[in-house]
Amino acid sequence: MAATSGEIEPGTVVRYADLREFIEIVDALGELRRAEGVDLQFEIGALCTISREAEICPTTLCDRFAGVEPGFRILLNPTRSLNRMALCYGLPLGLTREDYDRLGPEKASALKPIPPRVVQNGPILENVLEGDGVDLTRLPRPWWHERDGGAYLGTGDAIITRDPDSDWVNIGTYRVMYQDPTHVSVYINPDNHGLLHRERWFAKGKSCPVAISLGHDPLLFLVGANTQPAGSCEYDYMGGIRGEPVDVIIEPHTGLPIPARSEIIIAGEFLPDDIRPEGPFGETFGYYASGVQQLPTVAVKALYFRNNPIIIGNPPSRPPHERNATSIRFSRGESPLERLQRQVPGVKDVYSGFPSGGGHLAVISIEQQYPGHAMQAALALINGMGHRPRYVIVVDSDVNIRNPVELLWAVTTRTDPVKDFHVIERTTSSPVEPAIPPWENNLMSRAILDATRPFEWLDKFPLTVEVAPELRERTLARWRNILQ
Question: What's 200's domain CATH number?
């Protein structure tokens, strides 16, 4: 669709076909900026990071890079606002945080997967370079952070692999480092399905086919960044969200289905015997934690791109990543709150969205019913998660767990360090965790802080000093002119 400013009213659901129509709509919403001549050596990373400090982080379309032919562009921060996330997920635009907290899970729960549709042609085939014609130097190659080990083409990408023993196609978002005009490196965390596929191919003594989309519908980036169950395909999930199949083309060198409306795709294979250094790279927690990895490279067999193609640039930065929370929970599975409420009685709320916490701090609110209730809730949360959260705080239901001031008040007034701090050892970790030495085999500890009033003498615990609800209401009504 073509959209102009003023056409989109709050509450409207807007559909789009690809990244270019997405950009038109975002422009109509007033959330698009344009920049020409940005330096690819760190300045583009600084622009990307500093943009996130704005009240509403804009998405910025960058063009005309020195040494790169005009028309090869980079779009920064495409999904970092509530409006843009809602646009991707097909939710009404212009609603509140609370609205999306309800609507996202509702739509996800009702979602029915729709398999992709194979087509013979699409915009991605406008330019095809194969064999000796492959030249990755034609693409803008940004250095996002000052201590990165190289230029990273893929930060908001979608990496397509297939299990060698089945038809299971997986799409994940992993960082992609430029090596030379015909090779890249891909870092994949140990718990991701793309690594499972690659190692299964290698175990058979074969190279692993892979297709790397560098620019596409931002929804493909979102579904690739969120893990789906093993054996399920992100194309099916994306089709269910959009309400129609994703058009794909069977790429001839890899046999993999690639999005027909992607902007840029690299097709090739992981080579088990071509090992090169990758990294370091500025990670999502704000550190260069994973260091330099020795990884199998991808030998590029074909490069596809649209006329005037667009790469998505979405590198990590030091938390807080934005001034305001911009993500919308969109998952078919249980939320942590739903799972805890099913497993543990009396759970009122769960929150881990503190901007500076990077998901490492989770807080549980409970209505205590028996001794050990707080520990039971905390352990249930930890056992159902991956390598986050590292810290769990449990508080009574009178504490607003989304308010850091109230949380700190509970921690400092309702805990005794000797009695209420509990450390659990040898739990799962990840190479991107900055505090875990690489020689500790990806294991770390977790901490639980019981900041509830002790159940054993709950009736004797000092009462809190508060303004009663009825008195508060009367006072606000009478003195509203001086309290506003």
Answer: 2.30.110.10
pLDDT for the residue 323: 59
Q: Are 349 and 427 in contact (CB under 8 A)?
A: no
Q: What is the DSSP pairing of strand 443-450 with strand 391-396?
A: parallel
Query: What is the number of other CB atoms lying within 10 angstroms of the CB of residue 415?
Result: 17
How many whole angstroms from its chain centre is CA 253? Answer: 30
Torsion angles phi and psi, residue 226, rounded to 5: -110, 120
Q: Residue 132 falls within a domain, yes or no? A: yes
Which tens digit of pLDDT belongs to each residue from 414-465? Answer: 999 999 999 988 887 777 777 777 777 678 889 999 999 999 988 898 888 8
Give the three-state DSSP class for 100: helix
327 within domain boundaries: no
Q: Give the C-alpha separation, 334 to 119, whole Å.
A: 35
Q: Is residue 267 part of a domain?
A: yes
Q: How confident is the model at residue 3, as a pLDDT?
A: 42
d(CA 362, CA 342): 18
Segment 301-313, tens digit of pLDDT: 999 999 999 999 9
Provide the number of structural domains found in the chain: 2
Which CATH number is 415's domain given? 3.40.1670.10
121 Cβ contact partners less than 8 Å away, ≥ 6 residues apart: 249, 260
Residues 350, 363: Cα–Cα separation, whole Å: 6
Of residues 56, 65, 59, the one with CA closest to residue 36: 65
What is the C-alpha to C-alpha distance for residues 29 and 7, in angstroms, rounded to an integer? Answer: 9
**Enclosing domain of residue 413:** 336-469
> Is residue 5 in a domain?
no
d(CA 310, CA 462): 61
Query: Do residues 265 and 312 make contact, with C-beta atoms less than 8 angstroms apart?
Result: no
